[in-house]
Amino acid sequence: MPSTAGQVIKCRAAVAWEAGKPLVIEEVEVAPPQANEVRIKILFNALCHSDVYFWEAKGQTPLFPRILGHEAGGVVESVGEGVTELKPGDHVLPCFTGECGDCRHCHSEESNLCETLRFNTDRGVMLNDGKTRFSKNGQPIYHFLGTSTFSEYTVVHVGCAAKINPEAPLDKVCVLSCGVSTGMGATLNVAKPEKGQSVAVFGLGTVGLAACEGARMAGAGRIIGVDLNPGRFNEAKKFGVTDFVNPKDHDKPVQEVIAEMTDGGVDRAVECTGSFKAMIQAFECVHDGWGVAVLVGVPGNDDAFTTHPMNFLNERTLKGTAFGNYKPRTDLPTQVEKYMKKELEVEKFITHSVPFSEINKAFDYLLKGQSIRCIIRMEA
């Protein structure tokens, strides 16, 4: 096959032309990678709720036309000037937050918030020149989270592509590039429950179930799942959930319900909904003296967190995390190896699969609460 390096590639992409309207499969042009960039042939996507959230553009800055997608797996097609870490043919997981390897955050063992490549939901262009690599008939199409994987080919900064074991099945491990790692890491790396402790998880979507899975792996004695959708409760048992709370079933604040269930509050809480009300509930439901709450969900631009200062003075701790405190290029390969050694399950998160031409079905499944993760097969 002739090399496409250095050339513009025409391929299919699912373009979001405006908020909330079905994605349209279009032929787009994808420019070659520039300095410190790589062009990737995407083979599999998994639909994340964040894609839906920014597609709906409710409570967030609308930016269209845009190519969404950020949880995926693919193969490097070509590399730009100065790229030495990757070469054509390498298997990679694109990631919405990067790791430049040079900044203070990348050198810190306590942070994964790269100063250069920290996730930015409003930026729709590449850092190198402030322009897009996507276009159609001369019209620029914006990027999303530096990844834009709902395209057969995409261009990302080299620091946002984690090289992984080529033997790993991309249709499975692609879910590690966002939701599953985010939830597990929020519990294992940030909340850090001790064996036998109690954990409450707010929101039983993929990230929340992954947080439950992390609690199970840590040996939590009691895992309380909190969700407004009663249909999620049975599925959650597979991820270690022992108790279920639907706030609609109670005439008092859910934090009071949980405190009564647990003799004063849970040891750890992880919030995975993006609702500022749930964030407050998660913090206020942890036990005084040692309780730790971790915020994971993305709030709206105008949301505000309010709680009485005594909740802090009574020695409750509030933390936040992005991507479960994993450094993508350092830690994602390790996560993949854990999967290969059967130390980490990902198949139970995958409930549906659709061809790329039917990508809007994946959105329907997620909006109706029918799927955990739906795999989108790009070549189908």
TrEMBL record:
Report the locations given in the UniProt record.
Cytoplasm
Q: Does the keyword rRNA-binding apply?
A: no
Report if keyword Nucleus is assigned: no
Q: Which InterPro entries match?
A: ADH-like_C, ADH-like_N, ADH_Zn_CS, GroES-like_sf, NAD(P)-bd_dom_sf
Coiled coil (UniProt feature): none
Cofactor(s) needed by this chain: Zn(2+)
Q: Alcohol dehydrogenase-like C-terminal domain location, by residue?
A: 207-333
**Annotated Pfam families:** ADH_N, ADH_zinc_N
- Which intervals hold domain Alcohol dehydrogenase-like N-terminal? 35-164
Q: Identify the EC number(s).
A: 1.1.1.1
Identify one Gene Ontology CC term for this UniProt entry: cytosol
Q: Which GO terms describe its biological process?
A: formaldehyde catabolic process
Enumerate the UniProt keywords alphabetically.
Cytoplasm, Metal-binding, NAD, Oxidoreductase, Zinc
Q: Which GO terms describe its molecular function?
A: alcohol dehydrogenase (NAD+) activity; S-(hydroxymethyl)glutathione dehydrogenase [NAD(P)+] activity; zinc ion binding
Note the Gene3D superfamilies from the entry.
Medium-chain alcohol dehydrogenases, catalytic domain (3.90.180.10), NAD(P)-binding Rossmann-like Domain (3.40.50.720)
What is the predominant subcellular site recorded for this chain? Answer: cytoplasm
Q: Which family does it belong to?
A: Belongs to the zinc-containing alcohol dehydrogenase family.
SUBUNIT field: Homodimer.
Q: What is this protein called?
A: alcohol dehydrogenase
